[in-house]
Amino acid sequence: MSLSGQIAVSSENRDFRDRFADRASAYRRRVVQLRFVLVPLLLAFWYVVFFAPAARMLGVLAFVTFFVALVFSKRTMPKLICPACERDTDGEILRFCPECGSHEVLKKGDDKYFLLWPQCKACGKKPSRRKGHQRLYKIRFCTRCGAHLDERGV
Ligand SMILES: [Zn+2]
Ligand SMILES: [Zn+2]
User: 76 CA to middle of ligand 2, Å?
Assistant: First the structure.
């Protein structure tokens, strides 16, 4: 039994952490840059709303810029391609749990189960997304091939 951190990695999970590291850090960098741009814009908007209603146009401008930046950033976000199977890991949950790498994942379509989100029988997590497709789980393993990609998760 191999243990890495608190996660028990099974023999099905080939280790691709080294080859995934660059992609993960490019992704993390982009998330930080994004916050750097989006948070001040949102603050500017609320400032105008509460303290400077006369500068309405500025508020509108900040709001519009916020959404343009949001849409633009989604399009240009670095893709989290799995180095093992060369596919995008940031998609639908297919076979393996992205959090623990187990293949015991119940999906929406599986009979007997009515699930809003897939659920992992091994770790109990439900990898879900917000309406705008914002991911509410971390990718540590590739959902397609089960490769171990990142320790902390992206
Ligand atoms: Zn893969
Ligand atoms: Zn799991």
Answer: 29
> Which residues, 6 or more positions from 119, have their beta carbon under 8 angstroms from its beta carbon?
105, 106, 125, 126
Query: Distance, CA 26 to ligand 2 centroid (Å)?
Result: 25
Q: Do residues 149 and 82 touch, judged by C-beta distance below 8 A?
A: yes
pLDDT value at position 108?
Answer: 74
| Cα–ligand 2 centroid distance for 123 (angstroms) | 4
pLDDT tens digits for range 16-33: 999 999 999 999 999 999
pLDDT tens for residues 76-131? 889 999 999 999 999 989 999 999 999 999 887 766 667 788 999 999 999 998 87
Beta bridge partners of 9: 2
Neighbours of ion ligand 1 (CB under 5 A): 82, 84-85, 142, 144-145, 147
> Rounded to the nearest whole angstrom, what is the distance from the C-alpha of residue 49 to the centroid of ligand 2?
43
* CB proximity list for 21: less than 8 A, separation 6 or greater: 150
